[in-house]
Amino acid sequence: MNSDQSGSVKSVEVAVQILDVLANADRPLRVTEIARSLGMTKARISRHLQTLQSPGLVGRDANGTGYVFGQKLLHYARVAICRSSVVEAAQPFLRHLRDVTGHTAMQTVPIPGGALVVAALGHELKPGVAIQVGTVLPFPQSPSARMVQYFDANNVPGSTANTRTFNVSELRAKLATFGVEYEDDGLGNGFGKIAAPIFGSNGNLAATVGVILSSSLLSPSPHPGLMEQIRSTAALLQAHYADGAVSPLMPAFRRAG
Asked: Which part of the chain is the HTH iclR-type domain (predicted)?
């Protein structure tokens, strides 16, 4: 490999390192912060950021002071997610869930700080609550986002990491009793959500499936039959996608009553 080729490879490696730093950050980062994280000079990081910014792989935040993922990179991410096996596998199960419940069925996948809606199927004959694909459900208000935090791969049984801003005992009790997590109006918009976890073959949380509906239908608690429909649909999807896979943090299911 000649010096030009070696330099090009090194530039790609640095670019990937910068994207890794941005991916693991929960806010826009300044050049100084990225440089400090990678142990490189500000001048070197600035050059690479300019190169990445040109095709839209990184961008500036609203204040123009920090760097974030660019629109082109977000587009690539959406395409990759929509083509992932768990999203493809879930489609017939989401249709079934929509039809048996009469509510909008949705699927999310984990992202830093929350959960991303990757599929939402409303009922054509029974207009209900709509939610857009690409919506980010924030932690800790969203049941899906709370499960993302709870089942984080960095957690181990008995760990309290990433779980200090919501009631872990309550979440575990819901999962053990109903097989789902729910929230009647976590965002104050009149909508509630019920979600069940789906695990990958490695035991990590791969997705959640559930419904979004009027919060009035979740107060004081969801109908047991509705929660069972969601739990059983999730169990069918789990068997189809990664049969037998489960997180060590998932409590044993003991049917209510």
From this structure: 9-71
